[in-house]
Specification:
alpha/beta; Aspartate Aminotransferase, domain 1; Aspartate Aminotransferase, domain 2; seven-stranded mixed β-sheet; four-stranded mixed β-sheet; 14 helices; globular
């Protein structure tokens, strides 16, 4: 039996209150250990983790294979900087190219950094061709791409943006169901359209095939580049390596992060050849980007996703991607039952193991009730309960989570009627 590390919870909270910048509203729990789809707090209480570090820990907690390769790499060599070569960046870039169809990669440390790189590369593409007026971006309402200045500039939520304005100028936001608005917004001054194929923070909203087709037409008509933000939906979460091909999108740049390291910080901007030819030495950089530890983790994650070994070329999706497809049908059936049983469930959305319940009421009581019952989910877009479990999640764990949600939704609905 595993014993939890001795942790003084009161001291943990006191130290954070005294010394950390208070930018997070944390749930009142201190986690000290993980195993698969479960986390354990300082008292040894088990929680079913259906948020997995906001879609990061795709192999589950304490994954033996990932732990082994990280330990071996840490004992060998972790970092050299990008002043020199090492063996792993090229290997991981080749794998990402095979999965995405985009042949070039720039490595960084997070999805937000990947978005920043994509925004810069789009501007550089046009500058290199002498078209310095093409500096504008078109982004989507409900979209979220990060909190640094560039990524925040193409993030729609005014509450995130307003305290830091003025941001990068020249960004136009279009509703993802407004095809005519998109046509009007994209001009010969637009550098790029940026879109999440499935909007995560915005409430797990897949773009419609019709709107995706309108994006393609706008890019073809004007030459505008397309940036696909697959930081949350990419690398297996939908049961596909990437979701943009499902929608018929052909991006020039793709931002990835989160899943790529399964907890080891890494991000990447994937770049089409026509854009890559216009990017030059010194145009971008990262001290830690593509270090040996993170790229070794990334190689292991992709091996687990596709069921291939490091010595083999990419094969048709198997591995965890195949498993996610199986679990998708389990989620579909379970969510249909929840929607039928609870009037406060207004809609269910999602693909693979990227799921959401949209409620008719604020989702906060459901999140809090689930936490008390031992289930970790989170609230987004005010009325949405978002679920991003590890890709290793099992049918029994999905059924366990839905059983907890069933009880919590009943309780919240009853309380809502009482307060009225």
């Amino acid at each position: 039996m595993t014993t939890e590390p001795m942790v003084d919870v009161t001291n943990v909270l006191a130290l954070e209150a005294a010394h950390l910048l208070q930018t997070y509203k944390r749930a009142p729990v201190v986690f000290v250990r993980g195993d698969g789809s479960r986390l354990f707090d300082a008292d040894g209480t088990s929680y079913l983790d259906f948020i997995s570090g906001i879609g990061v820990v795709v192999l589950g907690h304490g994954h033996a294979g990932l732990s082994a390769v990280i330990a071996a790499q840490a004992a060998t060599l972790m970092h050299t900087s990008n002043l020199y070569y090492h063996p792993l960046q090229g290997q991981l870039a080749a794998r990402l190219a095979a999965l995405s169809g985009l042949p070039r990669t720039f490595f960084c440390n997070s999805g937000t950094e990947a978005v920043e790189a994509c925004l810069k590369f789009a501007r550089r593409y046009w500058f290199s061709q002498g078209m310095k007026q093409r500096t504008r971006y078109v982004a989507l309402r409900h979209g979220f791409s990060g909190r640094t200045m560039g990524a925040l500039s193409v993030t729609a939520n005014p509450a995130y943006r307003e305290p830091f304005e003025p941001l990068i100028p020249g960004v136009t936001f279009v509703s993802p169901d407004d095809s005519s608005g998109l046509r009007d917004a994209v001009t010969d001054q637009t550098a790029a359209i940026i879109a999440e194929p499935i909007q995560g923070e915005g409430g797990v909203r897949p773009l419609s095939p019709e709107f995706a087709a309108e994006i393609e037409r706008a890019c073809e008509r004007t030459g505008t580049l397309l940036i696909a933000d697959e930081v949350q939906c990419g690398l297996g979460r939908t049961g596909e390596p990437f979701y943009f091909p499902v929608l018929g999108l052909t991006p020039d740049l793709v931002a990835v992060g989160k899943a790529l390291g399964s907890g080891v910080p890494i991000g990447a901007a994937l770049v089409a050849e026509r854009v890559a030819t216009q990017i030059f030495a010194g145009d971008h950089g990262s001290t830690y980007g593509g270090n040996l530890l993170s790229t070794r983790a990334g190689l292991h994650v992709l091996e687990q996703l596709t069921g291939t070994s490091e010595a083999q070329p990419y094969l048709p999706p198997a591995g965890l991607i195949g498993h996610v497809r199986e679990m998708a049908s389990v989620f579909d059936a379970a969510f249909n039952r929840l929607a039928a049983a609870h009037d406060i469930v207004a809609a269910t959305r999602g693909v693979g193991v990227m799921r959401a319940l949209e409620l008719t009421v604020d989702a906060t009581p459901v999140i809090e009730g689930a936490l008390k019952a031992g289930l970790l989910v989170n609230r987004t877009a005010e009325k949405v309960v978002r679920m991003l479990p590890p890709l290793t999640v099992t049918q029994s764990e999905i059924e366990e989570a839905v059983t907890i949600l069933d009880r919590v939704l009943t309780s919240v609905a009853t309380a809502s009627k009482v307060t009225r």
